[in-house]
Amino acid sequence: MKKFIQSLPKVELHLHIEGTLEPELMFELAQRNNITIPFNSSTEVKEAYNFHNLQSFLDIYFQGANVLVHEQDFFDLTWAYLLHCKDDNVVHTEVFFDPQAHTERGICFATVVNGIHKALAKGRTELGISSRLIMCFLRHLDEQSAFKTLEQAQAHKDKIIAVGLDSTEIGHPASKFERVFKQAINQGFLTVAHAGEEGPVSNIHDAMNLLQITRIDHGVRCSEDQALIKQLAAERIPLTVCPLSNIKLKVFDFMKEHNIVDLLRKGLCVTINSDDPAYFGGYMTDNFLAVSNAHSMNKAEIAQFTLNAIEASFISECEKKRLKIMTQKYLDLHQ
Ligand code: ADE
Ligand code: ZN
Question: How many domains does the chain have?
Fold first, then answer.
């Protein structure tokens, strides 16, 4: 099964580029940019990655992002992630970035987006990995800051397919972003939002009703609402689930208790993703393996996660068809 999972074509839909900053690159960039970080070694950094909830992680995540200053830094970060994609047979990825985590520190929006975009373009030509870029608003910041960020994105609309919503879920309701999402939709952006990760199931309803999202990031707390489960299954509203992240941030105590396989078998369009792999102990293959080790699944069920991700992705119908055929062929060959 390990070999089957390793070589299975994969599609990633929930990946924060800032969450791919490995300790080694963090040190290299800190040195390059003359920035002090409160760690002496990679081991010390990894020891600090002991999270008890989402906020305890976010504090470390934003601190890490401070070493990213120049366009080249964002390029190097993204390129390093794409090399992991290649190793894991990720054929398509939809990448989040948090512009406000950088513009709030005085970094230009263009520096961030151009660095990421250039690496993604190189990933397409040199590694054969297709991609899309999604700009997230930080929900702990105010509406005005989100509007300013949307304004900054206008000059880069050709590089950004959708807007999203991330950071602290509890205490920062989706309603705060209803108007900015409406404007983004009017401007042609697709929309996604983190909801029901550690916040209540009502946050999922709010994301669907107030933000008109096309897929839900996390959404695992949908299990608390049977009517919602039925609706998600019937309408095939995708959930981008992040198994290792959920364990690291104590959304579930053990992988055996994770509801992802149960949701898959109920007919929901659930997908497997890595969220912030440098912080949570693994990229795509590691996430697939963690789920498969804790839950007994057959190969068709495992491949269904890829088929769901293709269905939920923001690529053209023609490209979806090509990836579906590729995945089905792989499954047929390895049954
Ligand atoms: N930003 C990066 N990772 C996140 C997560 N898992 N939840 C909310 N915001 C995030
Ligand atoms: Zn996330």
Answer: 1
- Percent of the chain topping pLDDT 90: 98
Ligand 1 and 54: CB distance under 6 A: yes
What's the whole-number mean pLDDT along residues 160-165? 98
- Range 41-47 contact pairs with CB under 8 angstroms and sequence separation of 24 or more: none
Query: Is residue 19 lining ligand 1, measured as CB closer than 6 Å?
Result: yes
Return the CATH number at 205: 3.20.20.140
Q: Read off the pLDDT of residues 102-148 as tens digits, 9 standing for 90 and up.
A: 999 999 999 999 999 999 999 999 999 999 999 999 999 999 999 99
Length in residues, the chain: 335
Q: What is the pLDDT of residue 320?
A: 98
Q: Of ligand 1's atoms, which has the minimum distance to the CA of residue 61?
A: 2
* Catalytic-labelled residue, pool 12, 71, 169, 197: 197
Q: Whose CA is closest to atom 1 on ligand 1?
A: 167
Q: State how far Cα 293 lies from the chain centre.
A: 22
Domain that holds residue 309: 2-334
